[in-house]
């Protein structure tokens, strides 16, 4: 971090204006007064930041759900071109031939517009009031806006290529990445403003990194299952030349391996008595993973009904967010006491364990 805030910024009620550059805490969020919008106190800045950061995360997750609705209702080509819905017409028109499919597809595009507003507002808020969190935070705050623009371009190519699964899969996979990074931004919003330090040994950080990579593999295999399955988004769209049953087994195997690592992480976190936020995040990931796995098996054995497939896509968004939450919870940006900054747990005999020591 390049510009850490004072170790103990004074809480503020937000009823009065703040001197430029002053870092104040309100509602668990620290903000820095800027030279513009000077009439906003700390409480107002905090509320705006929360709405923008949470709104961005929810919209990033929502675009996965609405994209699933487009696919499951066969509305992928409800609009035949992009950015217009039809040549010469930006908005859809109701016809007997097309039915409501153009409106479903256009609704998904409209949510992309809402998401663009939130992602731009997030970047603006970060540069106005959160610069004290450092250059790394500001760089991360730019990712949702950039990623949303990339998603729009890839979405256009998907339409131009008549929903070819080779393009639909990357189009989907961008979204969980943006969800994960948006979840990290929410964690950082409520976190401290100092230098980052680890709360767990290096071995556990590597374990979570492996889980994140494996989780992404789970999502990739899930897109291959969908790309070779019955829900193409349009009756005439091509499918991947893969055996859906075999790909489903590989997908399930990856999930089982992920669950094994997650169990190991939980045991390790409790054995070393690490910080409570890290344990809470791990248990949150357990709940999301179990629900997602249960929906996955249920949809497989019931013939992939649309409602369950849609729930599984919502679960994919929650899965990505939960992995990111779990990873971010292994660190803290709050200043620690000089004699306790390296201690992350106590051994069975009361001996301090530091992040450099690793597991004993």
TrEMBL record:
The keyword Iron applies. Keywords: Cell membrane, Disulfide bond, Heme biosynthesis, Iron, Membrane, Metal-binding, Oxidoreductase, Transmembrane, Transmembrane helix. Pathway: Porphyrin-containing compound metabolism. The chain crosses the membrane at residues 51-70, 110-130, 137-160, 172-191, 203-227, 247-269, 281-301, 307-331. It is a multi-pass membrane protein. Residues 1-19 have a biased composition (Low complexity). The keyword Membrane applies. Its main location: membrane. Residues 1-24 are annotated as: Disordered. It is found in: Membrane. This is Heme A synthase.
